[in-house]
């Protein structure tokens, strides 16, 4: 049974508020971290907070390492000569350095640790190509940065990230994080270009491959949009998302939808503000895609004892099926399970402690935090991190469903009867998979040597 009044649930089911915000965000276009579009997106959310009647809507600025895209190309030479330089064929990965490499291509398949080990000494000085796929029988999702880190550690000259989905859609994604720029040049290529590179480099004609990247790495600033609802308590439940997106697409599902949901849930909770036991802080972060900078800014400037827990929304509108990555915080898992039962809604759970998503800035310190997304049945990101992450792929009915479930969950988490115990940093460190540890150290985000 819902703990929210029927009127609030009905409003969640019928409102266009979140969809209008999402539409406005996607119409901006480029919301790359540290660039003008990102700031405009944060302004859209701040204005939505104000329209929803939330308390003290404002922007908070902080410094980040910025990245600007130049031209990139992958060239085949030898018996077959092709130059791939168009944006539907090849794009640089943010955080890459400028640079060029010409070398044999080594295809490591999905880029599992076992596949990297199989190729051993072949990788030194090579151009390493890895798919964006994770094998169905692998125990956890493999992130792009893990594959890049393995290639760099093996002495590769460059890294090529091949989309496993068809459609001339090269994937993008950060490879530098807090060690900008990354150690070797990196590009994303479409499945079609990747298949051609693999075929021709493996044939008897043995084509030569070269990678050329031009880009700019320099300091800039980003912003968070912040507001509150509920009593003016020291402790707060945080509901968060990131408003930045990659410059090649509209960032509809990743993560315009999450940002719109934060504003919508804040609006719905304002209808029951006097029933909240704990303040709820609404925040959309800048610069998630390039290193979780906005989340780290909030985690570093908020006393940890004042954060009851964190619900982070990311990629939460490609279906109506809610997924919770719990990071092992069972007290929060139980709340979402009870909400799903009350609404007879499907729910998927994952318990792996993951450093991907803004919740990690809090999880690493032992603060209870989950990632809320939706499950589409596709492998990997689907349209995410490509040109195709556009509004037409989404459905306003899905957005309303997730708004309903998250509003109910946050309302319950803000109750005095729900306890969300913090954990020690040592406990979190012990539970991090070895591959994520390698990735975090390569990206300058390993927090446990400080």
CATH architecture level-2 label of the largest domain: 3-Layer(aba) Sandwich
Rg, Cα atoms, Å = 22 Å
Proportion of helical residues: 25-40%
Overall CATH class of the largest domain = Alpha Beta
End-to-end CA span: 46 Å
Overall number of structural domains:
2
Structural class given helices, strands, pairing? alpha/beta
Give the CATH H-level superfamily of the largest domain. Zn peptidases
The CATH topology of the largest domain comes to: Aminopeptidase
Give a count of the beta strands, DSSP E runs of length 2 or more.
Answer: 15
Tell me the β content.
15-25%
Provide a descriptive summary of the structure in words.
It is a single chain. This protein has 450 residues and is an alpha/beta fold. The chain has 2 domains: 6-64 and 219-439, Zn peptidases (Aminopeptidase, 3-Layer(aba) Sandwich), CATH 3.40.630; 66-217, Glucose Oxidase, domain 1 (3-Layer(bba) Sandwich), CATH 3.50.30. Helix content is 32%, strand content 24%. Strands 1, 2, 4, 9, 10, 11, 12, 13, 14 and 15 form a 10-stranded mixed β-sheet that branches. Strands 3-8-7-6-5 form a 5-stranded mixed β-sheet, with helices on both faces. The radius of gyration is 22 Å and the shape is globular. The mean pLDDT is 95.
């Amino acid at each position: 049974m819902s703990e929210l009044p029927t009127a609030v649930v009905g409003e969640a089911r019928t409102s266009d508020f979140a969809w209008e915000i999402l539409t406005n965000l996607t119409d901006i276009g480029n919301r790359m971290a540290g660039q003008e579009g990102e700031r405009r997106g944060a302004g859209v959310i701040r204005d939505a907070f104000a329209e929803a009647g939330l308390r003290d809507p404002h922007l908070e600025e902080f410094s980040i390492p910025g990245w600007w895209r130049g031209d990139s190309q992958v060239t085949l030479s030898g018996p077959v000569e092709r130059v791939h330089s168009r944006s539907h064929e090849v794009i640089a990965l943010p955080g890459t350095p400028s640079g060029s490499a010409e070398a044999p291509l080594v295809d490591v398949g999905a880029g599992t640790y076992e596949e990297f080990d199989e190729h051993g000494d072949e990788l030194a000085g090579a151009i390493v190509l890895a798919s964006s796929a994770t094998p169905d029988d692998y125990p956890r999702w493999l992130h792009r940065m893990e594959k890049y880190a393995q290639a760099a550690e093996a002495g590769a000259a460059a890294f090529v990230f091949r989309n496993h989905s068809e459609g001339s859609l090269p994937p993008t994604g950060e490879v530098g994080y807090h060690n900008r720029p990354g150690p070797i040049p990196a590009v994303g290529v479409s499945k079609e270009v990747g298949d051609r590179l693999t075929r021709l480099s493996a044939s008897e004609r043995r084509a030569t491959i070269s990678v050329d990247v031009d880009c700019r790495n320099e300091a800039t600033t980003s912003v968070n949009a912040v507001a509150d609802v509920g009593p003016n308590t020291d402790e707060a439940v945080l509901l968060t998302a990131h408003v930045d997106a990659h410059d090649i697409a509209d960032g509809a599902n990743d993560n315009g939808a999450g940002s719109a949901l934060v504003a919508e849930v804040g609006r719905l909770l304002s209808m029951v503000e006097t029933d909240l036991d704990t303040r709820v802080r609404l925040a959309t972060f800048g610069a998630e895609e390039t290193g979780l900078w906005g989340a780290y800014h909030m985690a570093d400037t908020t006393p940890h004892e004042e954060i009851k827990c964190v619900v982070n929304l990311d990629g939460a509108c490609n279906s109506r099926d809610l997924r919770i990555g719990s990071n092992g915080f069972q007290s929060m898992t139980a709340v979402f399970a009870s909400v799903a039962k009350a609404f007879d809604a499907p729910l998927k759970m994952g318990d792996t402690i993951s450093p991907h998503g803004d919740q990690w800035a809090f999880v690493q310190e032992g603060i209870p935090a989950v990632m809320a997304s939706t499950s589409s049945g596709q492998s990997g990101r689907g349209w995410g991190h490509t040109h195709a992450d556009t509004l037409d792929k989404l459905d306003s009915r899905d957005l309303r469903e997730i708004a309903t479930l998250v509003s109910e969950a946050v309302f319950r988490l803000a109750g005095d009867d729900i306890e969300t115990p913090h954990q020690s940093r040592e406990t979190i460190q012990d539970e991090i998979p070895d591959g994520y540890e390698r990735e975090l150290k390569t990206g300058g985000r390993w927090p446990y040597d400080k």
